[in-house]
Amino acid sequence: MSTANRGVNIGPPRFKIAVHSIVWLAKSGSILSSAMIASQVNSHATFMRRVMQSLATAGIVDSKGGREGGYVLRKSADEITLGEIYEAVSTAVEEPEVNVHCGEAGELLDVELERILQETEQRTIEYLRQYTITNVMERVEFFS
Asked: Which domain covers residue 55, as residue numbers?
């Protein structure tokens, strides 16, 4: 079975949109409004502002207010790693967790699963730190 048309949904849902946004900011080299970024990544401006706020809080972008405001990269594309972006957007609240009551054995299982998932996420972040935005842009021949 081909995976070319299947989306990979590992990590926070905002991760892909955040990476696309950072790529567009890197490509533009200037300030872009949330509406401009949203139109480039096929998203809604309000959602983009939330994503961009997470990136600003993490020190990846700067936010400029006012009529000519928008977002600009705080550092160069070769200094921003996918791991940084992942961490920035993974702290955003997505949806409430559903509690399943399965007795004491279920609680022990939940504790162990949480430990494994935290370890998995930490390894994912470490792996993603190997790649910068520049690396990603080069891999997809973004500049050609």
From this structure: 14-139
Residue 71 lies in a domain: yes
What does the DSSP assignment read for 10-65? -S-THHHHHHHHHHHHHHH-S-B-HHHHHHHHT--HHHHHHHHHHHHHTTSEEEE-
- Flag whether 144 is in a domain: no
Question: Is residue 126 situated within a structural domain?
Answer: yes
From first to last of its 144 residues, the chain has per-residue pLDDT tens of 444 545 556 667 799 999 999 999 999 999 999 999 999 888 888 999 999 999 999 999 999 988 888 999 999 999 999 999 999 998 755 555 555 556 677 788 888 999 999 999 999 999 999 999 999 999 887 554
Q: Is the pTM of this model over 0.70?
A: yes
**Parallel/antiparallel/unpaired status of strands 70-73 and 61-64:** antiparallel
Domain containing 24 — which CATH number?
Answer: 1.10.10.10
The number of distinct structural domains making up the chain is 1
Look at residue 132 and give its three-state secondary structure.
Answer: strand
